[in-house]
């Protein structure tokens, strides 16, 4: 493993270690057809020479193949997400723009899609091309169409796939539009998350086909939605756990948090609450999904940098018209100071939604479902006849 270009034996050994690592995260064996695909497709062949790895402190550290070939190859065959590209935001902060998902997460998404022999698949988000190659290994390249919003990524993925003798249809286009020329598809599989299922995906899926996409809300990015297309332009299905993917580019919203400095004319309403902020924000994946579905546009951020509170939970809406804060003073754990401003009382909305979740028995993600049609998105609990308020 001392050459920047991994040998076949090093790749084979890395793939076996990766499969063993994936197996340790599961309660059931990796299906034989996916074990074969993960052995046949070298993950390192789809990764750039520089990766960014989680540093254990909430940030990322670079790992360069030319400087540390052994470390780079070990990262390539680890069951970990790898950031491959950053962008600089308008305020100067750097955030991940493209990443290679953890292979165990990739496998869960592929399993959720319930691929069958001969299925024709539309993949939304080619990315590095690794997931595309796994689809080709499972179904044959002729059955795979993949779309990518970045022209550079599409070109690189196409070249990497061709180097391994995979020649699927890879198109540079907006993933929300799908790709009508090769529709209809038996499966639409997204490698990015959505907050609303594009109507084009519904139209390009054959009746009885399946749409599998990671899910996102302003509150939480977690979970996968699995829909079955009906005879009309609608689809229905349940959420499953797992899946935290970058939001599809066309649905990203600039958000603004008001922080400590009140703007001219702002006079927040204040009160106290006995509900701990830690029992609300990030407390339970099922609650996070519930809040994302029932308190539209609300999101949160923790502030532990001092100021007037030891720890503060900030809430805001994506329109930046309303905000709330819940303060822990470092001592009192029975009551917390609440401030709310704007046309929405966000803390009150969130607290009421949490109470409804508790009254429903604190349901987990798998009990929620969604019915979608063009312009319509209706959440439900257990059955479509039980809508979520």
Can you describe what's shown?
This protein is of the alpha+beta class and 389 residues long. 24% of the residues lie in helices and 28% in strands. The model is unreliable at 256-262 (pLDDT under 50).
Overall body shape: globular
Question: Which strand order do you get reading across the main beta sheet?
Answer: 7-6-5-8-9-10-11-17-18
Continuous helix count: 9
Task: Work out the number of β strands.
Answer: 18
Sheet with the most strands, sense and barrel status: 9 strands, mixed
Helix % is 10-25%
Give the topology string: H per helix, E per strand.
HHEEHEEHEHEHEEHEEEEHEEEEHEE
Keywords:
alpha+beta, five-stranded antiparallel β-sheet
Describe the structure concisely:
This protein is of the alpha+beta class and 389 residues long. It has helices at 8-23, 32-40, 69-76, 103-112, 130-139, 151-163, 199-203, 285-294, 346-359, and strands at 50-54, 60-64, 82-88, 94-100, 121-124, 144-148, 169-172, 185-190, 205-214, 224-229, 235-240, 269-273, 298-303, 311-317, 323-328, 336-341, 368-373, 376-381. The radius of gyration is 22 Å and the shape is globular.
């Amino acid at each position: 493993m001392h050459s920047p270009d991994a040998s076949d034996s090093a790749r084979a050994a890395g793939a076996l270690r990766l499969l063993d690592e994936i197996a340790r995260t599961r309660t059931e064996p990796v299906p034989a057809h996916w074990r074969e695909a993960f052995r046949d497709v070298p993950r390192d062949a789809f990764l750039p020479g520089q990766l960014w790895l989680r540093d254990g402190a909430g940030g990322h550290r670079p790992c360069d193949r030319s400087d540390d070939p052994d470390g780079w190859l070990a990262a390539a065959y680890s069951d970990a997400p790898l950031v491959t590209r950053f962008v600089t935001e308008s305020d100067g902060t750097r955030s991940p723009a493209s990443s290679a998902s953890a292979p165990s997460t990739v496998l869960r998404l592929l399993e959720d899609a319930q691929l069958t022999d001969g299925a024709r698949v539309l993949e939304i988000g080619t990315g590095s091309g690794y997931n595309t190659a796994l689809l080709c290994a499972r179904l044959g390249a002729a059955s795979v169409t993949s779309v990518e919003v970045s022209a550079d990524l599409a070109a690189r993925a196409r070249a990497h796939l061709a180097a391994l003798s995979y020649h699927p249809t890879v198109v540079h286009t907006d993933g929300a539009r799908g790709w009508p020329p090769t529709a209809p598809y038996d499966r639409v599989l997204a490698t990015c998350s959505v907050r609303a299922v594009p109507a084009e995906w519904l139209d390009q899926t054959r009746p009885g086909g399946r749409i599998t996409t990671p899910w996102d809300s302003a509150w939480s990015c977690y979970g996968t939605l699995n829909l079955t297309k009906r005879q009309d332009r609608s689809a229905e299905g349940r959420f499953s756990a797992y899946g935290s993917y970058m939001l599809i580019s066309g649905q990203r919203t600039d958000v603004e948090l008001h922080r400590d400095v009140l703007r001219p004319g702002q006079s927040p309403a204040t009160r106290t609450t006995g509900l701990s902020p830690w029992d609300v924000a990030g407390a339970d994946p099922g609650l996070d999904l519930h809040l994302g579905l029932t308190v539209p546009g609300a999101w949160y951020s923790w502030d532990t940098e001092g100021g007037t509170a030891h720890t503060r939970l900030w809430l805001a809406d994506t329109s930046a018209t309303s905000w709330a804060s819940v303060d822990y003073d470092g001592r009192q754990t029975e009551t917390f100071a609440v401030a709310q401003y704007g046309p929405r009382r966000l803390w009150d909305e969130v607290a009421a939604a949490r109470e409804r979740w508790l009254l429903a028995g604190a349901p987990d993600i798998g009990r929620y479902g969604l019915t979608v049609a063009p312009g319509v998105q209706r959440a439900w609990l257990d059955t479509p006849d039980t809508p979520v308020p």
